[in-house]
Design brief:
CATH class of the largest domain: Alpha Beta
Number of strands: 10
Order of helices and strands: EEHEEHEHEEEHEHEHHHHH
CATH topology of the largest domain: Rossmann fold
CATH superfamily of the largest domain: Response regulator
Strand order of the largest sheet: 5-4-6-9-10
Length: 251
């Protein structure tokens, strides 16, 4: 019985939920991991929640109704202290954040989120249309800046963009983690051989460089491809590049 393909999306795809629902065979072939997603512009996936930080109870109630109508789970906070008690690093979804909150500045909360939970996008709310504030928030990574009162269509578009960005970030991180796990299976010699293959060297050249026989080098090559789960040199190049980039960031 032929195994059905896994589902996910490509690391190099543009941000957006439309990137989901593409069949793939293995991470090595396309650099893909990720859960299935229905073909819906703002579909919800289990575990995703929209976190709302808004101190105005009337606005908060309206936002909760709109978000739930869009099909998402909602969790609300009247002040940022309550939100900061959550296990932020493990949260999935997005944050709707008022620019002005009691005892805190929304921009400061955004900066804090970038440090502790970079996978969670932010949608800003404001009662005042300030171009300077909006530009600053967007420059610092906000997905959208909405001015109250918020229209249903505006929130739908903002949620679609934010959840799409969140999924892509999570998928990219999980892909990098999976690459690291597979690369860790390689011995030091196999990693050197993998690097040479990625640089375009053929088996005979690698054997001469390492002072090994061609047969031994072929065995290394076979084991490398098996451990990394790839079937072509092009796929191996992608994994080697991802592993090197990850190591460079960690150093």
């Amino acid at each position: 019985m032929q195994e059905s393909p896994r589902w996910g999306y490509r690391l190099d795809t543009r941000c957006g939920i439309e990137a989901f629902n593409r069949p793939c065979q293995s991470l090595g072939d396309d650099g893909i991991v990720g859960p299935p997603c229905p073909q819906n512009s703002i579909c919800a996936v289990a575990g995703e929640t929209v976190y709302i930080l808004e101190d105005d109870p009337v606005v908060l109630e309206e936002l909760e109704e709109l978000v739930e109508w869009c099909g998402y789970a909602v969790k609300s906070y009247a002040n940022p202290t309550e939100f900061q008690r959550e296990p932020i690093a493990t949260l999935r979804g997005c944050v709707i954040l008022d620019v002005e909150l009691p005892g805190a500045d929304g921009v400061e909360i955004q900066a804090w989120l970038r440090e502790v939970a970079p996978d969670i996008p932010v949608i800003f709310l404001s009662g005042v249309s300030s171009i300077e504030t909006a530009v600053g928030c967007m420059r610092d990574g906000a997905v959208e800046f909405l001015v109250k009162p918020i229209k249903q269509s505006q929130l739908r578009r903002a949620l679609s963009a934010a959840i799409g960005a969140s999924r892509m970030r999570v998928c990219r991180r999980e892909s990098i983690d999976e690459v690291a796990r597979r690369v860790d299976l390689l011995t030091p010699t196999e990693w050197r051989v993998a690097e040479y293959i990625a640089q375009g060297y053929v088996t005979k050249q690698i054997a001469n460089i390492l002072n090994r026989s061609e047969n031994t080098t072929k065995i290394h090559r076979f084991r490398i491809f098996t451990k990394l789960g790839v079937s072509s040199s092009a796929s191996l190049v992608k994994i080697v590049e991802m592993a090197k980039n990850a190591r460079h960031k960690d150093s």
